[in-house]
Amino acid sequence: MVQMEGKLTAVLMSGSDLKGDDAYAIVKLGKKQVIKTNKDDSHNPEWNFTREVHIKGDYEEMTIAVYEDDDFSSDDFLGSVTIPVSRLSGGPVNGTFALQTKEGEPAGEIKAIFSFEAGEVSIFDQLKDKLHDSDSD
C-alpha cells in the first residue's frame, strides 16, 4: 500500500481496437471510482479527456476499465489494465496500455497519461471533486 495525498491528473486520450462501440473509461484507485470519461461512439474512441482529482488514502493499484454503454441493459465490460500506484512516484506514467478481458484475452488498448502531485488535500477539495462528479453523471 502507498499512502497518497495530493492531486491525481489523468489524461485519457483514446482507445483502439475495442470490442464494442459507445465506449467510456473509468479509473479506480483500489475499489473507489475517481474518474469517468464521456462515451464515444466508436471502436477507436477519441476521448481527449483530462481530469484532476484530489485523493487521500492508502492505495496499491490503479485500474483503468473500459465499458460499452448499453441503453437497454447493464453496461458491458470490455477490458481493463492495472497499474501499481508506486509507478506514479517516479513521475508521469505515459503510454499505450494493453487491455485484457476477465479471461485474460486481448481487448484493445488505451492511450493515457497519469501524474501525481503530493500535497495537502482539504475537505473543500474533496467536496469540490464530489460535486464535479455528480455534474458529469
TrEMBL record:
SMART domains: C2. PROSITE patterns: C2 (PS50004). InterPro entries: C2_dom (IPR000008), C2_domain_sf (IPR035892), Ingression_C2_domain (IPR052981). It comes from the Eukaryota. Transmembrane segments: none annotated. It holds the Pfam family C2. Residues 1-99 form the C2 domain. PANTHER family: CONSERVED SERINE PROLINE-RICH PROTEIN (AFU_ORTHOLOGUE AFUA_2G01790), INGRESSION PROTEIN 1. This is C2 domain-containing protein. The lineage of its organism: Eukaryota, Rhodophyta, Bangiophyceae, Bangiales, Bangiaceae.
